[in-house]
C-alpha cells in the first residue's frame, strides 16, 4: 500500500501556501503577468504594450519587418482578420490565465489563518485591481467578454461563462474595491496604490463615455495623487518615461516592472516588445517590427508661426524621408518645424538614436519596401545599458529593463482635458493640453546633436484659445496622439472616440501609395472596432461564447 | 538411481550439438549436452520418453524402453512452428501460441547498419511501424498496431525480463526478439501493455568449448547529391528579387543588387556597414577588417557569384564502423558470455556522431539439478551530441534558407553571413556546425538483472528476478558570440545539464507444467511484481565568458545571466498476475491471463486496474479431415479478446492540485530594481483524483499456416483495438486559468488493421537455396471521441497543419484546400469572395458553398498515416556465397513539405528560393502554374495560411540493404584455428523510389502531428560497408 503512495515531488500544495507569505507569493505571481509574458499565450501576441492591437492596428505604425515574418499581424493591420488568427487566442489565453492568478490569491487567502484583516483587505484590493486590469484588456479588445471571478474553478465545473453581459460594472466594482482598500503608498514601487486604482477607474469611465463620473476622479488624482512610493504625480522629462534608468518616476501611475539578468531567462524583460528594434545593427539587432507610419511622422509637423499642430492639414505633405535611399546615399533630414516629441517616438535617418549615434536609415531597416524608412524608439534601450539593463542571452538583445507604463500622468491630464471638453470648461481643457505641451516645449528635453544643439528644427507652441467645442475636441485628441504615440493606445482611443472608421480609412487611402498591401483594404464600421473572439475559445466553450458581430 | 547417456548430433553433417536440452518427458528432469554433444540424465525407471530440443532444430522424442544409450540426430528447423518463443514471463512453442506474436528474424535484423536498436525493427515484424531520422543515435517513432494515443505510444521493452530500452543494445548480443501485439499475448503486462510489448532475450553461453567471435563492419555514408532542395543560384536569386518587386509594384531597389532596370550582382556583399559594392571601394580595404569583439566588427565579404551549395557545405561523406568481440562457452553446470562492442557512426551532417562502448556479461550457474541462478548485465557509455531535428532553426533548415550569394567565409577566413543586408535572417550553417563541435552529450547506463530458479514438487518452478536500469546523462552546450548574421548572439553562453533515472523491477513467479493422460497439456503461471522509478535532473547556464577557450568553460566562470534548475519525479507499480494455458491433444488451445496493477499515478480510489484476456486456438491441421491433405503441414486458427491499459501519458502528479512557478513564469520585480525579481507562486497543476485507467479492448483473429512441407509459412491477422477512456489532457476554455489541466479519461480512438507475413523457403538445387519473406502492416486510426471535438497540432509560421478531430484519423492535415490559382481578374470576380484574392494567388475551395472563403471553409486535406507499410526480404545462398536484399516501403501517406513555405514564396523571409518559384510560378502567360505569382507581399491568399499546397505524396520504397557475402570453406580455415570466416559487402539505402520532392519522406514527429518536413535529418543516405564475421 505505502509503496504506491508517491507524493508529487518539487511542488507545493495548497495547505503549504495558505499563509501570509504564501498568499503574498501568489500575488506576486499575478503581478508577473502584467507583462503579458510567462504564462499562457505567447510573447509579442500578448505584449503589455499592445503594440499589435493598439499600434499596428491603427495609424501609428506598420507591422514592418519582412513581409513574411509574423504574417498573422498582416490581417490585423489591414482589418481583414478572422477568428482563427492565432494572435487573438494567445492574447485571450494570457488575459484569462492572469485573471485566474488573481483569483488564486483570493481563494487561497480565504483558507489562511495568519493574515490580519488589514492585510487581507490590502491583498484582496491588489488582486482585484489586477483582475480588473486584465478584464479591461479583454474588454477593450473584444467588447463582449466573460467576467471570471474567484468562484469560477475547474473543480466547480463552472468555467464555461457566457460573454453575453456587459462587464463594465464588474470592472468598476473591482477598481472601486481597490480604491477603498488600497493605501496611498506601498512598500514596493511596483504595487498598485489607491491613486493608480482611481486613475484606472477614470479610464474605465472614459471608455464608457461617463465623463461626469470620470472627471471628479481625475481631478482628485491630479490634485492629490502620488506614486506607490509617495512621489506626487507630475510630468517629468518626456524621455525619462522611456528609459530604464529613470523609470518609476513621478509620472508613472501604473507600470509593468521589467527586469533582466534575474535568472528568468529573459522572460521578465519585456519579451513582448522584443521584435521592435532596428534590424542588422544598432540596439536589439532584431527584428525590425512596429515601424512608425509616415502619417504618424507627419502629425508632428507644426505651424511655423504658432508652433501648434496642423489639426486639419497635417497629412497633406510628407515629412522628408529616406525611402529608397541606401545609407551611403546622401540625405538631409526635414528642415521644417517639428514637434520635438517626434524624435523620442520615431527613429529616423540622420537623427540621434538615443546614444547609438545617428540613425543610419536603410542599414537598420529590414525591408524598406515593406515597412518604410522609420524605426520605433520608445521601447529602445541606450547603448550604455547593454548588458546591465538588457539581457544578452538570446538571438536578440532587445530584452530590457525598460518599463512599459500602462498609465502615465500625461494620460491622466489629457483624459481630464477630454472630460472638460465634453462636460466642463474649454479653458480648463486647454490648460491641461498646454500643461502637456509646455513640458514638450522645454528645450532641455529635446533630442540634441553631439554638439549639444537641437537635432532638428523643434518648435512647440501653446494654445491661446479653444474657440469652440469641436476645435477643442480635435485639439485634445490630436495631443493624445502626439503625446502617447507608439504606446499601444491609438486603436482603442479611435474606437472610443467613434472615429475609427473615418480616420483609419483615410489613413489607408493615403498610405497605400507607400505600403502597397493597403490596396483594397478598409475598416468596416460596426465590425472592425473589436477583434473577433478566438474561434478555438468558442469551440472549447462548446458554443457558450458567442462571436462578435461581423466575423 | 541410474543414468541414461547419449549424444546429440546434427543430422545434416554429423556435427555434435552443444547446449541441447534433454528432458525426461513430463518431468522437470533435464540435462544439457556438452561441447561434444554428450549428455547424461538421471532416471528412476526404464520407461518414459526422452525429448531433445534446441533452438534451430526440430525436437525429437525417443522412448526409453529399457535402453541406456541414445543417439539423437536432429534436423534443422524449417518450420518456425516448433520455435520456442519467450513471451510474457514464460516460454512457449510457436505452434501453441494463440495470441498475436511477431517473431523477428535476428539474423536479418542485423543486416541493416544502424546505431539504434529501434531502427533495426523497421519492416522486420508485421504490425510494427518504425520511423527514424538519419541523425546518429536519434530515437524513433515506434507504433505497434497504429497510434493509440496523442502522447507516448512507445511499446514496453522487456529485456531479459526487465523493463528497459533497446536503443543502445548491441545488435550482436541479441538472441531473439518477439513482439506481443494483441491482448492474448500482451495482457500479462497489464497497464504497460497497450502499446505492445517487445521482448528481447540476449545471448547466453552454451556449454561446450569456448568460442570467440568477432563481428565488424566499416563503411562510408554518402549524403544526397545534386541540388536536393532545388534552389536558385546567385544570378537567379537576383532575377527572382526583381520579379517580386515588379509584381508588387514596389521600387526596383535592393541593398545588394542596386537600383536599376536589371539587378547587378555586386563584387562585395559587405564591407563594414556597406552592402552591395560593385568593384572595389575604400571600404573594402583589407586593413580595415576586424572580427575581434573588443573593437567594432568590420567584415569584408566577397559575393559568391556562382552560388554556395550550403547543403554540401554541411553534409559530407562520413564513416561508420562497428566492432563486437564476444567470448562464450561453459559446461553442463555453468555458462558464460562476455562481449565487448564499439560503434562509431559519424553523421553526414558535420560534427554529429554516435560513439558507443558497450560490454555484456551473461552467466548462468546450475547449482544443483533443480536450482539455477544467473545474471545478465549490460553496461555502456555513449557520446552523442544531438541537433534539434525537424526545426526551422537547425542547420539543415539553414541550408535552404541561407542565400547562395553568401560565401562560407569572408576574405580573411571569418564566417560570412546575413550581416550583409538584404539577404534575410538565416544563419551560416557551417558556422553553426563548426561552433557546435565542442558540444557534448554523454550517457552511461547499466541494465540487467539477476535471477534464481528452483524446480520443486516435480511440476513446479519458482523464479525470482531482480533487475533494473540506471542511466546517467550529461550534456553541455557552448554558444559562441556571432558577428556574421543579421540576428547575432550578443554573448557567449554555456549550459550544462546532468541527471539520472533509476528503475528497478522485482518479479517473482511460480510456474506449473504437466501433461495429463498424454493429451491434456496444462501450464500455469502466477506472479507478483513491483516496479519503482525515480529520477532527478539538474542544470544551469551562464553568459559572458571572458574567453572562448574550451578549458575555461564552467558555469561559475560566466559573468552574467546565471540560471539554474532541477527537477525530480517518482512513480511505482505493484502487480499480481496469472496465466493458464491448456492444450488438448495439440489441437485445441486455450489460454487465459489476468493481471491486477496498482499504480502510484492514480488517486487512491482509482489506483487498481484489472486486465483480463482470453485466447483460443484450433489447429485444424490436426483434425482427421485434414490429415491427408499433404500440402498443409500446419494450419491454425486463433482468436483473442482482452483488455490492456496505458499509464504512460499520466504525470505522476496528476491527482494533485499543485502550486509552484519559477523566475520566468511567476517572479516579478515588484521593487523596480531592474535586475532582480521577487519569488512568486502560481497554480501549476489542477489535480483530478478521479482519473483512472485507460482501457484498450483488443480483438484479434489470426490464421497461421505452414504449407508445402513447411516451405511456406503464412500468418494473417485482423485486429480491432478500441481505446476507451483515453488518457487525455482535459480541454477547457482559457477562462479556467493557465494551470496544467489534469489528464482525464475522455476520448476514444479506434484502430483497425491487418498484419500479414509470409516466408517461403526454397531449394532450387543442392547448392542454391533461397528464402523470401514479406511483411505487411496496416492500421487505420480513427478518433471516435475527444473533448472539444478536436485539437490542433503541428504548428508552423502560418498556423497549425494538423487537426485531430472526431471522425478523422490521427494527425490529419487541415486547412484551406487549394483549387488552383486565380487565372485572372475575371476568375477572381467570378469566384467566391476571398480576402486578398488576385490573379496568380491561391484560389481556395468554398467548402460550405456560401460564396465566401472564411475559416469555415477549412477542411481535411491529407492523412499522414500510410495505407500500408511493408518489408520484403530476400536471402539467396549458392555454395559459399550468400546474397540478401531488404526492401522497405510506406504507401499511401501524405506529408507536408513545409520547406516549400521558405523556398516557394518570395516574402517568406529573404532566404534562397526554389527553381519552382522562379521558373514554375504563375505569370499572365503561365496561368496553369502550380506555384503562385512571385511577389513581395504576404497574405491570406499566398503564403499566409495553412493550405493544401504543401501536401505531397509521401509514399516511398527503399532498398534498405543489399549484401553479398562469402564464407571461406572451413577446411581451408581449420589450420588457422578458425571455425568460420565470412566476409561481406553491403550497400544500405542504395535507392529510394518516391515522388516526394523534399529530402526524405521518412518523417517522424509527435503522435499528435507527424509527417511534416520542418528540416529533417534525412534517413536515406547511401551507405557502403565491408564486414567480417569470424568465429574461433
Structure description:
By secondary structure, chain A is mainly alpha-helical. Chain A has helices spanning 14-17, 20-32, 51-56, 73-77, 86-109, 117-142, 168-181, 194-207, 211-224, 294-299, 342-345, 368-371, 409-423, 426-441, 469-484, 490-497, 500-511, 535-540; strands spanning 61-64, 252-256, 289-292, 346-347, 375-376, 390-391, 399-400, 404-408. In chain A, the strands form four sheets. Chain A has a two-stranded antiparallel ribbon. A two-stranded antiparallel sheet of chain A has the order 2-8. Chain A has a two-stranded antiparallel sheet with strand order 4-5. In chain A, helix 14 runs parallel beside helix 15 (469-484). The mean pLDDT of chain A is 94. In chain B, strand 11 (128-132) and strand 12 (140-144) form a beta hairpin. Chain B starts with a strand and ends with a strand. Among the domains of chain B are: 2-74, Sandwich (Immunoglobulin-like), CATH 2.60.40; 84-207, TonB-dependent receptor, plug domain (Ferric Hydroxamate Uptake Protein, Chain A, domain 1, Beta Complex), CATH 2.170.130. In chain B, the strands form 13 sheets. Chain B has a 22-stranded antiparallel barrel. A five-stranded mixed β-sheet of chain B has the order 10-15-16-13-14. In chain B, strands 3-2-5-6 form a four-stranded antiparallel β-sheet, with no helix packed on it.
Amino acid at each position: 500500500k505505502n509503496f504506491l503512495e508517491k507524493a508529487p515531488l518539487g511542488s507545493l500544495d495548497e495547505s503549504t501556501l495558505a499563509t501570509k507569505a504564501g498568499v503574498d507569493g501568489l500575488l506576486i505571481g499575478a503581478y508577473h503577468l502584467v507583462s503579458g509574458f510567462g504564462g499562457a499565450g505567447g510573447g509579442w501576441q500578448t505584449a503589455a504594450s499592445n503594440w499589435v492591437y493598439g499600434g499596428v492596428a491603427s495609424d501609428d505604425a506598420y507591422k514592418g519587418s519582412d513581409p513574411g515574418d509574423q504574417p498573422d499581424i498582416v490581417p490585423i493591420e489591414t482589418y481583414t482578420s478572422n477568428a482563427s488568427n492565432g494572435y487573438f487566442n494567445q492574447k485571450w489565453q494570457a488575459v484569462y490565465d492572469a485573471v485566474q492568478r488573481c483569483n488564486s490569491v483570493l481563494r487561497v487567502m480565504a483558507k489562511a489563518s495568519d493574515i490580519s484583516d488589514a492585510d487581507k483587505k490590502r491583498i484582496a484590493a491588489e488582486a482585484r485591481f489586477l483582475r480588473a486590469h486584465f478584464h479591461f484588456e479583454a474588454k477593450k479588445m473584444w467588447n463582449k467578454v466573460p467576467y471570471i471571478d474567484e468562484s469560477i474553478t475547474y473543480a466547480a465545473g463552472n468555467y464555461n461563462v457566457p460573454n453575453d453581459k456587459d462587464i463594465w460594472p464588474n470592472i468598476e466594482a473591482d477598481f472601486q474595491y481597490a480604491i477603498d482598500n488600497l493605501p496611498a503608498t506601498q512598500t514596493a514601487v511596483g504595487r498598485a496604490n489607491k491613486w493608480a486604482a482611481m486613475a484606472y477607474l477614470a479610464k474605465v469611465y472614459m471608455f464608457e463615455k461617463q465623463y461626469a463620473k470620470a472627471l471628479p476622479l481625475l481631478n482628485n488624482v491630479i490634485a492629490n495623487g502620488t506614486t506607490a512610493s509617495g512621489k506626487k504625480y507630475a510630468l517629468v522629462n518626456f524621455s525619462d518615461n522611456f528609459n530604464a534608468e529613470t523609470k518609476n518616476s513621478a509620472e508613472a501611475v501604473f507600470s509593468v516592472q521589467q527586469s533582466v539578468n534575474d535568472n528568468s531567462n529573459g522572460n521578465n524583460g519585456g519579451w513582448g516588445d522584443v521584435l521592435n528594434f532596428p534590424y542588422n545593427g544598432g540596439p536589439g539587432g532584431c527584428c525590425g517590427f512596429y515601424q512608425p507610419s509616415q502619417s504618424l511622422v507627419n502629425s508632428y509637423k507644426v505651424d511655423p508661426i504658432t508652433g501648434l499642430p496642423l489639426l486639419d492639414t497635417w497629412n497633406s505633405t510628407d515629412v522628408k524621408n529616406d525611402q529608397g535611399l541606401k545609407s551611403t546615399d546622401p540625405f538631409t533630414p526635414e528642415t521644417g518645424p517639428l514637434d520635438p516629441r517626434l524624435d523620442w517616438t520615431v527613429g529616423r535617418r540622420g537623427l540621434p538614436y538615443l546614444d547609438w549615434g545617428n540613425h543610419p536609415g536603410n542599414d537598420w531597416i529590414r525591408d524598406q519596401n515593406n515597412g518604410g524608412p522609420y524605426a520605433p524608439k520608445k521601447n529602445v534601450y541606450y547603448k550604455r545599458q547593454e548588458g546591465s539593463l538588457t539581457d544578452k542571452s538570446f538571438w536578440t538583445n532587445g530584452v530590457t529593463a525598460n518599463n512599459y507604463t500602462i498609465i502615465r500622468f500625461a494620460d491622466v491630464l489629457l483624459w481630464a482635458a477630454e472630460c472638460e471638453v465634453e462636460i466642463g470648461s474649454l479653458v480648463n481643457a486647454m490648460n491641461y493640453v498646454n500643461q502637456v505641451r509646455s513640458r514638450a516645449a522645454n528645450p532641455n528635453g529635446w533630442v540634441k546633436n553631439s554638439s549639444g544643439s537641437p537635432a532638428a528644427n523643434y518648435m512647440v507652441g501653446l494654445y491661446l484659445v479653444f474657440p469652440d467645442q469641436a476645435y477643442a475636441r480635435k485639439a485634445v485628441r490630436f495631443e493624445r496622439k502626439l503625446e502617447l504615440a507608439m504606446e499601444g493606445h491609438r486603436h482603442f482611443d479611435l474606437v472610443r472616440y467613434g472615429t475609427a472608421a473615418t480616420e483609419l480609412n483615410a489613413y489607408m487611402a493615403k498610405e497605400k501609395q507607400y505600403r502597397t498591401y493597403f490596396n483594397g483594404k478598409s475598416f468596416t464600421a460596426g465590425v472592425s472596432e473589436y477583434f473577433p473572439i478566438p474561434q478555438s475559445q468558442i469551440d472549447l466553450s462548446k458554443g457558450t461564447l458567442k462571436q462578435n458581430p461581423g466575423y | 538411481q541410474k543414468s541414461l547417456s547419449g549424444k546429440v548430433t546434427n543430422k545434416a553433417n554429423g556435427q555434435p550439438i552443444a547446449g541441447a536440452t534433454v528432458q525426461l518427458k513430463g518431468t522437470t528432469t533435464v540435462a544439457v549436452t556438452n561441447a561434444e554433444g554428450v549428455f547424461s540424465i538421471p532416471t528412476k525407471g526404464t520407461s518414459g520418453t526422452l525429448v531433445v530440443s534446441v533452438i534451430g532444430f526440430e525436437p525429437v522424442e525417443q522412448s526409453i524402453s529399457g535402453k541406456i544409450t541414445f543417439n539423437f540426430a536432429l534436423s534443422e528447423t524449417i518450420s518456425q512452428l516448433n520455435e520456442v518463443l519467450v513471451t510474457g514471463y514464460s516460454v512457449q512453442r510457436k505452434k501453441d501460441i494463440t495470441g498475436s506474436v511477431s517473431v523477428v528474424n535476428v539474423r536479418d535484423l542485423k543486416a541493416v547498419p544502424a546505431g539504434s536498436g529501434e531502427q533495426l525493427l523497421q519492416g522486420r515484424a508485421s504490425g510494427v511501424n518504425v520511423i527514424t531520422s538519419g541523425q546518429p543515435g536519434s530515437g524513433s517513432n515506434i507504433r505497434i498496431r497504429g497510434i493509440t494515443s496523442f502522447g507516448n505510444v512507445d511499446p514496453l521493452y522487456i529485456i531479459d525480463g526487465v523493463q528497459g530500452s533497446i536503443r543502445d543494445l548491441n545488435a550482436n548480443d541479441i538472441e531473439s526478439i518477439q513482439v506481443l501485439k494483441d491482448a492474448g499475448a500482451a495482457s500479462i503486462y497489464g497497464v504497460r501493455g497497450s502499446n505492445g510489448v517487445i521482448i528481447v532475450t540476449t545471448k547466453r553461453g552454451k556449454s561446450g568449448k569456448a568460442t570467440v567471435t568477432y563481428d565488424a563492419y566499416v563503411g562510408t555514408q554518402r549524403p544526397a547529391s545534386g541540388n536536393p532542395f532545388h534552389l536558385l543560384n546567385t544570378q537567379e536569386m537576383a532575377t527572382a528579387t526583381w520579379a517580386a518587386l515588379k509584381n508588387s509594384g514596389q521600387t526596383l531597389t535592393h541593398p545588394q543588387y542596386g537600383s536599376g532596370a536589371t539587378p547587378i550582382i555586386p563584387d562585395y556583399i559587405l564591407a563594414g556597414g556597406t552592402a552591395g559594392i560593385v568593384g572595389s571601394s575604400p571600404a573594402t580595404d583589407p586593413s580595415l577588417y576586424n572580427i575581434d569583439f573588443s573593437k567594432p566588427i568590420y567584415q569584408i565579404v566577397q559575393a559568391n557569384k556562382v552560388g554556395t551549395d550550403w547543403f554540401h557545405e554541411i553534409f559530407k561523406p562520413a564513416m561508420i564502423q562497428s566492432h563486437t568481440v564476444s567470448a562464450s562457452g561453459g559446461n553442463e553446470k555453468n555458462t558464460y558470455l562476455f562481449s565487448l562492442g564499439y560503434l562509431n557512426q559519424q553523421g553526414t551532417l558535420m560534427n554529429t556522431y554516435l560513439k558507443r562502448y558497450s560490454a555484456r556479461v551473461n552467466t548462468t550457474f546450475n547449482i544443483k539439478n533443480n536450482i539455477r541462478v544467473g545474471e545478465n548485465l549490460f553496461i555502456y557509455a555513449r557520446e552523442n551530441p544531438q541537433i534539434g531535428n525537424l526545426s526551422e532553426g537547425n542547420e539543415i533548415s539553414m541550408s535552404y534558407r541561407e542565400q547562395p550569394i553568401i560565401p562560407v567565409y569572408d576574405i580573411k577566413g571569418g564566417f560570412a553571413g546575413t550581416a550583409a543586408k538584404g539577404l534575410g535572417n538565416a544563419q551560416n550553417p557551417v558556422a553553426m556546425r563548426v561552433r557546435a563541435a565542442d558540444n557534448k552529450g554523454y550517457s552511461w547506463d547499466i541494465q540487467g538483472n539477476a535471477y534464481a530458479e528452483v524446480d520443486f514438487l516435480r511440476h513446479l518452478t519458482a523464479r525470482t528476478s531482480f533487475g533494473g536500469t540506471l542511466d546517467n546523462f550529461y550534456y553541455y552546450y557552448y554558444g559562441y558570440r556571432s558577428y556574421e548574421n543579421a540576428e547575432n548572439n550578443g554573448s557567449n553562453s554555456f549550459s550544462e545539464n546532468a541527471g539520472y533515472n533509476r528503475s528497478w523491477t522485482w518479479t517473482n513467479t511460480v510456474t506449473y507444467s504437466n501433461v495429463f493422460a498424454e493429451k491434456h497439456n496444462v501450464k500455469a503461471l502466477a506472479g507478483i511484481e513491483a516496479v519503482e522509478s525515480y529520477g532527478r535532473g539538474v542544470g544551469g547556464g551562464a553568459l559572458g565568458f571572458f574567453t572562448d577557450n574550451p578549458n575555461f568553460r564552467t558555469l561559475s566562470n560566466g559573468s552574467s545571466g546565471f540560471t539554474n534548475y532541477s527537477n525530480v519525479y517518482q512513480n511505482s507499480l505493484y502487480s499480481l498476475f496469472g496465466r493458464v494455458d491448456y492444450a488438448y491433444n495439440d489441437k485445441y488451445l486455450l489460454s487465459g491471463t489476468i493481471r491486477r496493477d496498482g499504480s502510484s499515478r492514480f488517486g487512491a480510489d482509482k489506483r487498481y486496474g484489472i486486465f483480463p484476456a482470453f485466447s483460443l486456438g484450433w489447429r485444424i491441421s490436426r483434425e482427421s479431415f485434414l490429415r491427408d491433405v499433404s500440402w498443409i503441414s500446419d494450419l491454425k486458427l486463433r482468436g483473442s479478446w482482452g483488455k490492456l491499459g496505458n499509464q504512460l501519458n499520466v504525470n505522476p502528479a496528476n491527482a494533485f492540485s499543485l502550486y509552484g512557478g519559477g523566475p520566468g513564469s511567476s517572479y516579478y520585480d515588484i521593487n523596480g530594481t531592474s535586475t532582480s525579481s521577487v519569488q512568486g507562486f502560481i497554480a501549476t497543476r489542477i489535480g483530478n483524483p478521479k482519473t483512472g485507467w485507460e482501457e484498450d479492448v483488443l480483438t484479434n483473429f489470426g490464421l497461421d499456416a505452414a504449407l508445402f512441407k513447411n516451405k511456406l509459412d503464412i500468418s494473417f491477422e485482423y485486429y480491432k483495438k478500441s481505446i476507451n477512456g483515453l488518457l487525455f489532457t482535459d480541454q477547457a476554455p482559457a477562462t479556467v486559468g493557465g494551470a496544467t489541466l489534469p489528464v482525464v479519461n475522455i476520448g476514444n480512438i479506434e484502430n483497425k488493421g491487418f498484419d500479414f507475413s509470409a516466408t517461403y523457403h526454397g531449394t532450387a538445387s543442392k547448392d542454391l537455396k533461397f528464402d523470401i519473406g514479406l511483411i505487411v502492416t496496416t492500421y487505420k486510426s480513427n478518433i471516435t471521441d475527444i473533448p472539444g471535438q478536436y485539437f490542433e497540432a503541428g504548428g508552423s509560421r502560418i498556423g497549425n497543419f494538423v487537426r485531430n478531430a472526431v471522425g478523422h484519423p490521427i494527425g490529419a492535415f487541415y486547412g484551406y484546400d487549394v483549387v488552383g490559382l486565380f487565372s485572372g481578374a475575371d476568375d477572381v470576380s467570378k469566384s467566391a469572395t476571398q480576402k486578398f484574392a488576385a490573379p496568380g494567388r491561391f484560389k481556395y475551395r468554398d467548402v460550405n458553398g456560401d460564396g465566401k472563403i472564411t475559416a469555415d471553409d477549412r477542411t481535411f486535406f491529407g492523412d499522414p498515416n500510410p495505407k500500408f507499410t511493408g518489408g520484403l526480404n530476400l536471402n539467396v545462398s549458392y555454395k559459399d556465397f550468400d546474397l540478401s536484399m531488404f526492401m522497405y516501403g510506406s504507401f499511401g501517406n501524405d506529408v507536408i513539405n513545409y520547406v516549400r513555405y521558405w523556398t516557394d514564396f518570395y516574402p517568406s523571409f529573404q532566404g534562397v528560393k526554389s527553381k519552382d518559384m522562379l521558373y514554375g510560378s504563375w505569370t499572365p502567360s503561365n496561368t496553369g502554374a502550380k506555384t503562385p505569382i512571385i511577389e513581395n507581399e504576404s497574405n491570406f491568399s499566398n503564403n499566409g495560411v495553412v493550405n493544401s499546397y504543401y501536401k505531397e505524396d509521401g509514399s516511398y520504397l527503399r532498398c534498405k540493404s543489399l549484401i553479398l557475402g562469402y564464407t571461406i570453406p572451413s577446411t581451408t580455415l581449420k589450420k588457422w584455428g578458425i571455425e568460420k570466416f565470412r566476409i561481406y559487402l553491403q550497400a544500405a539505402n542504395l535507392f529510394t523510389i518516391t515522388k516526394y520532392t523534399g529530402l526524405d519522406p521518412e518523417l517522424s514527429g509527435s503522435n499528435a502531428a507527424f509527417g511534416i518536413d520542418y528540416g529533417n535529418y534525412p534517413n536515406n543516405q547511401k551507405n557502403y560497408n565491408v564486414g567480417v564475421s569470424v568465429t574461433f
